[in-house]
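Teaching soon. Got one?

===
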Amino acid sequence: MAQRLALRRLLSLAPRGPPAPPGRAFGTSAGRRSTFNVQDGSDFQDRVVNSQKPVVVDFHAQWCGPCKILGPRLEKMVAKQEGKVVMAKVDIDDHTDLAIEYEVSAVPTVLAMKNGDVVDKFVGIKDEDQLEAFLKKLIGA
Protein backbone atom coordinates (compact mmCIF):
# COMPACT_ATOMS: atom_id res chain seq x y z
CA MET A 1 0.00 0.00 0.00
CA ALA A 2 2.83 2.40 0.85
CA GLN A 3 4.44 1.64 -2.51
CA ARG A 4 1.15 2.37 -4.29
CA LEU A 5 0.81 5.73 -2.50
CA ALA A 6 4.43 6.61 -3.31
CA LEU A 7 3.86 5.70 -6.96
CA ARG A 8 0.68 7.83 -7.07
CA ARG A 9 2.54 10.80 -5.63
CA LEU A 10 5.34 10.36 -8.14
CA LEU A 11 2.89 10.08 -11.04
CA SER A 12 0.96 13.15 -9.87
CA LEU A 13 4.19 15.18 -10.12
CA ALA A 14 4.97 13.99 -13.64
CA PRO A 15 4.05 16.47 -16.39
CA ARG A 16 1.15 15.38 -18.56
CA GLY A 17 0.73 16.22 -22.20
CA PRO A 18 2.76 18.69 -24.25
CA PRO A 19 4.26 21.73 -22.55
CA ALA A 20 2.27 24.98 -22.62
CA PRO A 21 3.19 27.32 -25.47
CA PRO A 22 5.47 30.23 -24.48
CA GLY A 23 3.59 33.28 -23.20
CA ARG A 24 0.43 31.36 -22.31
CA ALA A 25 -0.71 30.31 -18.86
CA PHE A 26 -0.82 26.63 -18.08
CA GLY A 27 -4.36 25.50 -18.87
CA THR A 28 -6.48 22.76 -17.39
CA SER A 29 -10.17 22.14 -17.50
CA ALA A 30 -12.26 23.75 -14.79
CA GLY A 31 -13.10 20.28 -13.47
CA ARG A 32 -9.45 19.47 -12.92
CA ARG A 33 -8.76 22.66 -10.95
CA SER A 34 -11.66 22.14 -8.58
CA THR A 35 -11.31 18.36 -8.06
CA PHE A 36 -8.51 16.35 -6.47
CA ASN A 37 -7.86 12.82 -5.24
CA VAL A 38 -7.03 12.50 -1.55
CA GLN A 39 -3.61 10.88 -1.17
CA ASP A 40 -3.57 10.06 2.57
CA GLY A 41 -4.83 11.18 5.96
CA SER A 42 -2.56 14.22 6.21
CA ASP A 43 -3.52 15.28 2.67
CA PHE A 44 -7.19 15.03 3.72
CA GLN A 45 -6.46 17.14 6.81
CA ASP A 46 -4.59 19.79 4.82
CA ARG A 47 -6.84 20.05 1.76
CA VAL A 48 -10.28 19.21 3.19
CA VAL A 49 -10.50 19.81 6.94
CA ASN A 50 -8.30 22.95 6.82
CA SER A 51 -9.74 24.27 3.54
CA GLN A 52 -10.79 27.91 3.42
CA LYS A 53 -13.44 26.97 0.83
CA PRO A 54 -16.37 24.59 1.26
CA VAL A 55 -15.48 21.04 0.19
CA VAL A 56 -17.59 18.29 -1.35
CA VAL A 57 -16.11 14.92 -0.39
CA ASP A 58 -16.98 12.03 -2.71
CA PHE A 59 -16.40 8.66 -1.02
CA HIS A 60 -16.38 6.12 -3.85
CA ALA A 61 -14.91 2.79 -4.99
CA GLN A 62 -13.58 1.54 -8.33
CA TRP A 63 -15.99 -1.42 -8.30
CA CYS A 64 -19.07 0.75 -7.59
CA GLY A 65 -21.33 1.22 -10.63
CA PRO A 66 -23.37 4.12 -9.19
CA CYS A 67 -20.10 5.87 -8.23
CA LYS A 68 -19.05 5.83 -11.89
CA ILE A 69 -22.27 7.66 -12.77
CA LEU A 70 -22.28 10.13 -9.87
CA GLY A 71 -18.57 11.05 -9.92
CA PRO A 72 -18.42 12.78 -13.33
CA ARG A 73 -21.85 14.36 -12.78
CA LEU A 74 -20.72 15.79 -9.44
CA GLU A 75 -17.39 17.00 -10.89
CA LYS A 76 -19.27 18.84 -13.64
CA MET A 77 -21.58 20.53 -11.14
CA VAL A 78 -18.67 21.53 -8.85
CA ALA A 79 -16.81 23.01 -11.84
CA LYS A 80 -19.89 25.13 -12.64
CA GLN A 81 -19.56 26.80 -9.22
CA GLU A 82 -16.49 28.67 -10.55
CA GLY A 83 -14.14 28.05 -7.64
CA LYS A 84 -16.60 28.68 -4.79
CA VAL A 85 -16.30 25.03 -3.76
CA VAL A 86 -13.76 22.23 -4.31
CA MET A 87 -14.24 18.48 -4.55
CA ALA A 88 -12.15 15.80 -2.85
CA LYS A 89 -12.39 12.22 -4.10
CA VAL A 90 -11.72 9.48 -1.53
CA ASP A 91 -11.43 5.86 -2.66
CA ILE A 92 -12.73 3.83 0.29
CA ASP A 93 -10.56 0.83 -0.60
CA ASP A 94 -7.40 2.96 -0.36
CA HIS A 95 -8.55 5.05 2.61
CA THR A 96 -10.61 2.76 4.82
CA ASP A 97 -9.62 4.77 7.89
CA LEU A 98 -11.27 7.92 6.49
CA ALA A 99 -14.39 5.97 5.50
CA ILE A 100 -14.67 4.63 9.05
CA GLU A 101 -13.96 8.02 10.63
CA TYR A 102 -16.72 9.67 8.57
CA GLU A 103 -19.14 6.75 9.06
CA VAL A 104 -19.38 5.81 5.39
CA SER A 105 -21.42 2.60 5.25
CA ALA A 106 -22.33 2.66 1.54
CA VAL A 107 -20.97 4.20 -1.64
CA PRO A 108 -21.33 6.64 -3.14
CA THR A 109 -21.50 8.83 -0.04
CA VAL A 110 -21.03 12.56 -0.48
CA LEU A 111 -20.27 14.92 2.39
CA ALA A 112 -20.51 18.70 2.37
CA MET A 113 -17.82 20.17 4.64
CA LYS A 114 -17.35 23.73 5.79
CA ASN A 115 -14.62 24.87 8.20
CA GLY A 116 -13.72 21.22 8.86
CA ASP A 117 -17.26 20.20 9.87
CA VAL A 118 -19.73 17.99 8.00
CA VAL A 119 -22.76 20.21 7.32
CA ASP A 120 -24.69 17.96 4.92
CA LYS A 121 -24.54 14.47 3.44
CA PHE A 122 -26.23 12.17 0.95
CA VAL A 123 -25.89 8.55 -0.12
CA GLY A 124 -26.59 7.29 -3.64
CA ILE A 125 -27.13 8.91 -7.01
CA LYS A 126 -28.67 12.35 -7.44
CA ASP A 127 -29.72 14.13 -10.64
CA GLU A 128 -28.18 17.45 -11.68
CA ASP A 129 -30.98 19.56 -10.15
CA GLN A 130 -30.54 17.83 -6.78
CA LEU A 131 -26.76 18.24 -6.96
CA GLU A 132 -27.12 21.92 -7.81
CA ALA A 133 -29.40 22.45 -4.79
CA PHE A 134 -26.93 20.53 -2.58
CA LEU A 135 -24.04 22.74 -3.74
CA LYS A 136 -25.97 26.00 -3.49
CA LYS A 137 -26.92 25.14 0.09
CA LEU A 138 -23.26 24.45 0.87
CA ILE A 139 -21.92 27.71 -0.61
CA GLY A 140 -24.83 29.75 0.67
CA ALA A 141 -26.05 30.91 -2.75
In short: The radius of gyration is 15 Å. The domain at 35-139 is CATH 3.40.30.10 (Glutaredoxin). The beta strands are 35-37, 55-60, 86-91, 109-114, 117-123. Confidence is low (pLDDT under 50) at residues 13-31.
